[in-house]
Design goal:
By secondary structure, the chain is an alpha+beta fold. The longest helix is centred in the N-terminal third of the chain and has 14 residues. Helix 3 packs across helix 4. It starts with 10 loop residues before the first strand and ends with a strand. It contains 8 helices and 8 strands. Strands 1, 2, 3, 4, 5, 6, 7 and 8 form an 8-stranded mixed sheet that branches. Helix content is about 30%, strand content about 25%.
C-alpha cells in the first residue's frame, strides 16, 4: 500500500445517489461520506459518448467542492452509459421504453462506459479515467423482458438491466470489468486513488469475493497508465 498521510485514510466522498455505487465502494473497506449531485446530463448529449462520461464524472466530482467542510476531502464522481450501435441508452422513462431497450439489446453486443473522476479540492487537481466493458446479452423473449420490467428492477438503470439480477440473468458474456457494468469499476478507481490514499491493494480479491465472480481482467487493468490529471 502507498500512503499520502500515513496516519489515516483519505476522507473519501462519493458524489452519487446510486445505491449500487455505495455498495461497491464499501468493498474497498475505507470509510466514506455521500453527497448527491444534480447534473443536467441532457446538455452533454452532443458529445461523443466516451468523452461524455468523463466530462459528467468530472463535473459531478468538482461541483461538490462548495458543499464540503473538509478541504482534505477526496471526491469521487462517476457516470455510466450503455451504447448500442452508436446510440446511447439511458435510464428508461417508462415500462414500454424499458421493454423496447431490452428487445433491442437481446442477443446483441453493446458497450458499457463509465467515466471516473477523483477531485482533490485542496489542490484543484482532478484525475480521470474511463472504463469500458463489452457485453453480450443472451437471447430472451418479449414476455421475459416484460416480466422483468414489471419487477421494477431496470427502471433506474442505464440500458434497462442489471447484470447482477440472478432471476432475469440478462448477460451471456462480458469482456472487461464486471463491476463497471454494475456501476463502479473498482480496479480503475484504485488506479486513481493508490498514489494518494491508504487503500488496501487487494482490491481485485475483495471485489471478486463480494460480487461472487471470477475476474481475469484485473492484471491488465492495473497496468493502465492512461490516468489524466486536470487542473481547475
Amino acid at each position: 500500500m502507498t500512503r499520502k498521510n500515513p496516519s489515516n485514510y483519505c476522507n473519501l466522498v462519493l458524489a452519487s445517489a446510486s445505491p449500487r455505487r455505495r455498495e461497491l465502494l464499501k468493498i474497498l473497506g475505507v470509510p466514506f461520506a455521500v453527497v448527491t449531485s444534480s447534473v443536467n446530463e441532457q446538455s452533454f448529449n452532443h458529445c461523443d459518448p466516451e468523452d461524455m462520461v468523463i466530462k459528467l464524472a468530472r463535473l459531478k466530482a468538482e461541483m461538490q467542492t462548495d458543499q464540503l467542510n473538509n478541504t482534505d476531502a477526496v471526491v469521487i464522481g462517476a457516470d455510466t452509459i450503455v451504447v448500442h450501435q452508436s446510440s446511447v441508452l439511458g435510464k428508461p422513462r417508462s415500462n414500454a421504453e424499458a421493454v423496447d431497450m431490452l428487445e433491442r439489446l437481446a442477443g446483441e453486443f453493446h458497450h458499457v462506459h463509465t467515466g471516473l473522476a477523483v477531485h482533490f479540492p485542496d489542490t484543484g487537481i482532478t484525475l480521470e479515467l474511463r472504463a469500458t466493458t463489452i457485453v453480450r446479452m443472451r437471447e430472451f423473449t418479449r414476455q421475459e423482458a416484460k416480466d422483468y420490467v414489471a419487477s421494477g428492477d431496470p427502471m433506474d438503470k442505464a440500458g434497462s438491466y442489471a447484470i447482477q439480477n440472478q432471476v432475469f440473468a440478462p448477460v451471456e458474456s462480458i469482456q472487461g470489468c464486471y463491476a463497471n457494468v454494475v456501476g463502479l469499476p473498482l480496479c480503475h478507481l484504485y488506479l486513481l486513488l493508490r498514489e494518494h490514499c491508504d487503500i488496501d491493494s487487494r482490491v481485485p480479491e475483495r471485489c471478486q469475493a463480494a460480487l461472487q465472480i471470477e475476474c481475469h481482467e484485473h492484471p491488465q487493468i492495473l497496468k493502465n497508465r492512461n490516468v489524466v490529471g486536470v487542473a481547475e
